[in-house]
Amino acid sequence: xxxxxxxxxxxxxxxxxxxxxxxxxxxxxxxxxxxxxxxxxxxxxxxxxxxxxxxxxxxxxxxxxxxxxxxxxxxxxxxxxxxxxxxxxxxxxxxxxxxxxxxxxxxxxxxxxxxxxxxxxxxxxxxxxxxxxxx
Length: 135
What we know:
Elements: H1 6-19, E1 26-31, E2 40-46, H2 53-68, E3 72-78, E4 84-90, H3 100-126
Helix pairs in contact: 2-3
């Protein structure tokens, strides 16, 4: 069985999100592992996590919604300066697909669910702030 340091990978993804100017301020990473049938994805935000309570609250609401949707958090990490965060998620293993088409469908469904979770958490955390750009 392969072993991964999910928190280290999440920190790496947070740093990459921060360094990639073309990425929006928050979104979903598609993560591909060879020979992995269970979909994994990452959420990220570039919103001053270490300095802004709203960013930390947004992540807390994401975690609550993940739990309610039976999605497991694999890891969490920050960029070295604390400006960006990333959270890794795997799909519900009880709904594991075996065929290529089933795996592709499950990945798409996971990504769509994560986009919705992220948007709801962002709206809840930042809705009262007129100084933040739209999602």
